[in-house]
Amino acid sequence: MSFFSWGKAAxxxxxxxxxxxxxxxxxxxxxxxxxxxxTTVSLPVSQSLGxxxxxxxxKAAKVKRGDVIATxxxxxxxxAPVSGIIKNVQTGPHAALVYDTVITIQAxxxxxxxxxxxxxxxxxxxxxxxxxxxxxGGVVGLGGATFPTYRKLMxxxxxxxxxxxxxGSECEPYLTCDYRLMLEESDKVVLGSWLIAKxxxxxxxxxxxxxxxxxxxxxMRQTIAxxxxxxxxxxxxxxxxxxxxxxxxxxxxxxxxxxxxRLVPKGGLPLSVGVVVQNxxxxxxxxxxVRNRKPVLERVLTVSGLGIKTPKNLRxxxxxxxxxxxxxxxxxxxxxxxxxxxxPMMGRTIADLDIAVTKGTSGLLFLTAAETSLDGYQACxxxxxxxxxxxxxxxxxxxxxxxxxxxxxxxERFGVKECFECGCCSYSCPAKRPLVQFMQVAKATYxxxxxxxx
Length: 454
Ligand code: SF4
Ligand code: SF4
What we know:
There is one protein chain. This protein is α/β, with parallel strands linked by helices and 454 residues long. It folds into 3 domains: 25-30 and 118-291, Rossmann fold (3-Layer(aba) Sandwich); 33-115 and 296-368, Ubiquitin-like (UB roll) (Roll); 385-452, no CATH class. The protein has helices spanning 127-136, 149-153, 177-184, 186-200, 214-226, 252-260, 280-291, 322-328, 385-389, 396-404, 424-428, 435-452; strands spanning 33-35, 40-44, 54-55, 62-63, 68-71, 78-79, 84-94, 98-107, 163-167, 204-210, 237-243, 275-279, 298-304, 312-317, 336-341, 348-349, 363-368. The strands form 4 sheets. Strands 1-14-13-17-15-16 form a 6-stranded mixed beta sheet. It has a 4-stranded antiparallel beta sheet with strand order 2-8-7-4, with no helix packed on it. Strand 15 (336-341) and strand 16 (348-349) form a beta hairpin. The two termini are 42 Å apart. The model is unreliable at 1-8 (pLDDT under 50). Bound molecules: iron/sulfur cluster (2 copies). One iron/sulfur cluster (SF4) is lined by residues 380-386, 397, 400, 428-431, 433, 435.
């Protein structure tokens, strides 16, 4: 493990860059997860990285909770999160893609609602069958990445992996959904982690939790001790490691370094240093898919910010609209100046309350002017703060200058392709330069250029 100090002694962390933004977790950290089901859900078919799913239902069809409503050939499916009638299959808004095909279901309880009961002997299923259930259950990275989980767990031939890292860092300010999940459903998170370790064939599982979530770390430790995992085969050594609270502790490369001391090389994946990383909510979803044959039908998200009347941690069906969530939380105040899906560092601004919760939506934030800056930006004063803050050692200042000069295809030498858009640079810049946006546009320009030159 790596022990670097920013005033707090001896807690592991990553070696380069990073910031400590105001946490704002106090708004929701003590609020238990509350279930909310609206009368209508609208599911965009693009819910994971890769090709969008094709609708397999038509208007007026009856569906039961858990039925497949859209499929990707050989990929992850989308399921009806509620029983009811298909009201529409049409173009609608999407938080990231602007527009998408959207399947709307009018909820109506079925007489024989599926129960998704625990199946005896699930622990001993063949690995191929476990992977099949994870794929068929539509499980994707629920930390926000939405990469199909079965693909990440199907290790390439010859891969040498010895450690599973479970990400309970939740380093984005405001968000507390993973924290509450670890506190309230720790048995499922721990069993799901054991299951993933079994699938990838490793005997070592480390669960990383930042030190601003000590109660969750303690709960996870107690659960590991109480569950009697030593009776399960194979034996997996499970531990909880408390890391420094430092953004972006939860990004894969940084967390791998913090927990194992291994440095993921430039352009490489954690796999290249023998590690697979999964988020706590994804571990939970894998368990439900394998043990209960329950697909991803809902998710826990945090609704927060000073603008929302009643902040909450909610469990909602996928497809619940922001509008319904706002109404459930008592509305938002007139001084709300920004609405975001996700956290304030990597989330997206939305302008339309018709946007639906997707599998990757970890939060909805309603920020007032006191919480977010709307100031215009200034010229670079060459202070170097952005370079110091970048956890990847990049030069966002230089990228922004080249972008302003209309030279996007000369920014590779400043590391633009290594940028994972964490936002530390923008956060640190006294001139308020939108550095992460410059990085995003430069990356998109390279992608377009590479497509064209093929
Ligand atoms: S957004 Fe990119 S350039 Fe900026 S700090 Fe993060 S990795 Fe570095
Ligand atoms: S932090 Fe802002 S002002 Fe300072 S070097 Fe970076 S871009 Fe320039």
